[in-house]
Amino acid sequence: MEILTEINIPKNKLKTTLELYLNPTQIEEINDVLDFAEKSHKDQKRISGEPYIIHPIATAQNLAEMKLDTTTIKGALLHDVIEDCNVSYNEIEKLFGSEVAYIVDGATKLKNIDKINESSQMAIEINTPQRTRSATLRKILIAMTKDVRVVLIKLSDRLHNMQTLKYLPASRQLRIARETLDIHAPLAHRLGMNEIKWKLEDESFRYLNPENYKMISKLVARKRLERERYVNAAVESLKTELEKSNIKSLIYGRAKHLYSIYKKINRYQEIGRKFNEIHDLFALRILTDNINDCYKTLGIVHSKWRPLQGEFDDYIGNPKENMYQSLHTSVIGPGNYSMEIQIRTKEMEKIAQEGVASHWSYKEGEQNVTNGNNFEQQITWLKQILEWQQEFTEDEEYLSSVKTDILSDQVFVYTPKGDVIDLPIGATPLDFAYRVHTELGHNATRAYINNKIVALNTILQNGDLVEIKKSRKNKGPNINWLNPELNFLSSIGAQTKVRQWFNKQNKNVIEREGKKILNKELTRLSIDLSESEIAEKMDFTTTKELIEALGSGTIPITRIAEAIDRTENKIKNNNPSVQPGVLVVIGEQDLLTKIGRCCNPIHGDEIIGYLTRNQDVTVHKISCNNAKYSLKPEKIVDVNWGEYTTTYSSRLIVNAYDRVGLIRDITMVVSSEGVNIHKITSSENKGSNAVNIAMTVYTRGVQQLSKLFSRLEAIPGIESVIRINE
DSSP of 372-418, one letter per residue? Predict the structure, then answer.
């Protein structure tokens, strides 16, 4: 009787929800499916001890609350029968139709056996749990490109699993929570399903970072009444203004979820602000009847409270790719506190919470008709997922590319024809070229952003217009594009395409390229080691293996310097210039320093320097009275405490074509690497615009020096950078 009660409660709840929007015939069809699922899972129990059928019912319940069509509800109830009950694809197709069968098969996990999946014709070789999981996720993503309802079921399935995760061992809890945060929550975000997204994030946060989860829960609870009083007062005040303008609206406070607050606290800590200073944990959301009222409401909000500069976004005029539409603004509200406000129509609110699911919701009065027809074609990244299926042979490599290039935060740019291309944040024109077409990437020579020529490794920003010029001959990619220090490629997909190109070259080409890379690195670093010694330090059996790995792009050039630094830990023939704890005068390494007796600063104090008549530097605390009132501004110099690692001087020669801003670009790159320039001079080559720039820099070792070389060589106009022995 107890078991019957456990089953009947979720069954009755599902029936009640379905009766709100489906007709009796459709409900009867779903009852038949539920009976079949119940018989298939008979005597099966979850780890919690409850009957297994409760899980598919809960999965269907989540989707029914979004009023999804009957096919989706049927698929949710059957999503585990192939995997757990030895029910075949053909049996489901015969009983419930091909559409339901495809969705169920698409949502089914793979087993630890080698087989060909009949529905996708995808060869799968599985021999480890991790490879099984990667292959399963790949299979689901591919199935999703043909019918988005596959992933709607998987997200609902994952949500219920996360809500009952406490019954699993700790190791499985962590693995599942990490996978959920890395893949399922971002996938829900890309599909616009924010309600499920934040629930998945919070449940993952609970297990991945339990201490911070509990801490933030307590902080939010402690401040809840105070914030609610503030928000309620703001709501009443704004409601009065909108009523005066005859704008019908619904206004309420929107509570931020815990994981969002955790990320916001981290951002605040970076700029020195505390939790008590976060006043937008509750945002105001205003729902209107139409778009015109949205913009009228925005005007009223901005006239009532001062808007914060740079904090307005119009996602109604420029919807996000996941269909999200809303007006976002931040204002200085009552009490001089910042407050976030979102303005949208009621229809936009439904889409904002349910995303793609709203396009599959059942429309009243239309028999089995949904709003999802051909919807998949509207989401360009679904096409990308399908294309990568042909390009990536390894499941884990494929999944890594999807996580980095599609499920991470995106930047949206335009082609010259006005098409929108979405790329991971940090992407470059070269990433853009490979996303448009592999051959365009391989043969890219110049890039234009907003009609201005830029380097191929320039970081793209939202709204940029990007154009790529390709070489007339098929020259192929440059091996340096795989150098992580140069930041040419941020997307895994583009990096994989470059490696695939080099792997397809014949052995002679690979060996020639590898030898060229090795010799160049040893020459520019002025390292007196043989090729065989380098191979040994890098754990290669032979020099040939090292050369082939470099030439094929299997290992980056930076590994050479890493290996030398790891074993040598110094730059040859150089004496240390800065010992632990000493004072450094920025830009003037040879100046003598002494401690001011008036304040006696010690290592770690905030300090300034004062240039004396004897051309040495006296160092004072910033708080010292002498520093505040006695020192002449023109005599003040920048000083800092020396690093705890020894640094070494290196003499560099930069060969370049002279242009306006060249020296500025060089010094900016050197400075950004935390490297001090002791001396810099330049000389022109008569009869040409070539210039030689000599500079002495202080680095911590070969690895930092190699990275600096790579960064300098990426500057437009620089031909080469080498180190010479003084």
Answer: -TTGGGG-HHHHHHHHHHHH--SHHHHHHHHHHHTSS-EEEEE-TTS
Nearest to 645 by CA among 571, 554, 539: 571
449, 479: one domain: yes
202 tagged catalytic:
no
Claim to verify: residue 539 and residue 622 sit in the same structural domain: no
Q: How many domains does the chain have?
A: 6
Query: Of 652, 665, 651, which Cα lies nearest the Cα of 717?
Result: 665
pLDDT score of 101: 93
Is 199 part of a structural domain of the chain? no
Judge if 514 and 487 occupy the same domain.
Answer: no
d(CA 85, CA 91): 12
Determine the Cα–Cα distance for residues 72 and 360; give it in Å rounded to an integer: 9
Catalytic residue among 83, 391, 536, 643: 83
Residue 196 lies in a domain: no
Contacts of 454 (CB under 8 A, 6+ apart): 429, 447, 448
CA distance 258 to 185: 14
Active-site option among 65, 84, 396, 467: 84
- Is 84 among the catalytic positions? yes
Q: Give the model's pLDDT for residue 529.
A: 77
Domain final residue pick, 102, 137, 167:
167
Query: Are 20 and 159 in the same domain?
Result: yes
Burial class (CB in 10 A: 0-12, 13-18, 19+), 227: middle
Q: In this structure, are 631 and 669 located in the same domain?
A: no
Question: Rounded to an integer, what distance in angstroms lies between the CA atom of residue 641 and that of residue 619?
Answer: 10
Q: Write out the residue range of the structural domain in which residue 625 sits.
A: 581-641
Residue 511 and residue 497 share a domain: no
For 9-54, what is each residue's pLDDT tens digit? 788 899 999 999 899 999 999 999 999 999 999 989 998 889 999 9
Give domain status of residue 173, yes or no. Answer: no
Does 431 reside within a domain?
yes
Indicate whether 38 and 163 sit together in one domain. yes
Spans in the chain with pLDDT lower than 50? 1-3, 112-127, 364-374, 376-377, 569-581, 586-587, 589, 629, 643-644
pLDDT for position 129: 66
For residue 298, the model assigns a pLDDT of: 95
Q: Cβ–Cβ contacts within 10 Å for residue 131, how many?
A: 17
Asked if 360 contacts 371 with a C-beta cutoff of 8 angstroms, the reply is: yes
C-alpha dist (Å) from residue 49 to 52, 54, 267? 8, 11, 42
3-state secondary structure of 556: coil
Residue reference for tokens 């890219």: 444
Task: Mark whether 528 and 609 lie in a shared domain.
Answer: no
Domain boundary among the residues 503, 519, 537 is at 503
> Would you state the structure tokens that stand for residue 471, as one six-digit string?
């070489």
Task: Tell me the residue ranges of DSSP E strands in 567-714.
Answer: 576-578, 583-585, 593-595, 607-611, 617-621, 636-637, 639-641, 647-657, 676-684, 690-699
How far is Cα 320 from Cα 409, in angstroms, rounded to an integer?
Answer: 12
